[in-house]
Amino acid sequence: MKRVDERLLLIRSMSQQCIAVRIRLLSRMLTNIYDSALSPFGAKLNQISILVFVHLTGEVGYDALCKRLKMEKSTASRNIERMKKKGWLDIVSAEGEKRKFLKITPKGEVLLGKVHGVWEGAQKKALDLLGEEGAEVLCGIANGIWKKDKGTKRTLAK
User: Fold this and answer.
1) pTM for the predicted model, two decimal places
2) Could you tell me if residue 66 is inside a domain?
3) Which of 28, 81, 92, 108 could tie 104 with a disulfide, CB 3.0–4.6 Å?
């Protein structure tokens, strides 16, 4: 009986204190807000994140993109293939190099301009959900991790 009680205490502790479960819940809720807003454009948050990063870097390799956005290669590849088919991204290679780089197309740049307004609406909904203080804390944590990982001063925009 004592073992069962200890196990139940551990399970309750895990259910009440697990940071990962709470972050995943927030992630799903927030992703849904942005994906819903972007759906009329045939885009998802992951794709827009990729487009923004590629636009900011000019050209970027798959590995650098995955590392910076903390994205699995398979997830990135699926999204990149879809974005290539929609004409938002091109794959280019430097002369004499086997490595390939992603580059945003003019159509991808136009898309970023078009989605900005709905992104702002989604951002407002996300801020309403998290509260100003909650959003600042989350952005501060993410920016701190990004700085350590990259060794750069570039941060996530608020």
Assistant:
1) 0.82
2) yes
3) 108
